[in-house]
Amino acid sequence: MTATTATHAAATTQPSGGGTSIWRQPVAVWAIAFACTVSFMGIGLVDPILPAISRELEATPSETMLLFTSYLFITGIVMLFASWVSSRLGVKRTLLVGLALIVVFAAAAGLSGGVVEIIGFRAGWGVGNALFIATALAAIVGAASGGSRQAIVLYEASLGIGLAVGPLLGGALGELSWRGPFFGTAALMALALLAILVVFRSPAPAAGAAAPAKVSFFASFRALRNPALLTLSLTAFFYNVAFFVLLAYSPYPIEAAAAGAGMTFGAHELGLVFFGWGLAVALTSVLAAPVLTRRLGLRPVLFAMLGLLAVAEAVLAIGIDDAGVLITTVIVAGLFLGVLNTALTEAVMEATDLPRNVASGTYSGVRFIGGAIAPAVAGPLAAAVTPSAPYWLGVGALIIAIGIMTVAGRTLGHLGRPHETAVAEAADIGQGDA
Question: Which residue ranges form the domains of the chain, and what is each CATH number?
Answer without folding.
Answer: 3-15+25-202+219-433 (1.20.1250.20)
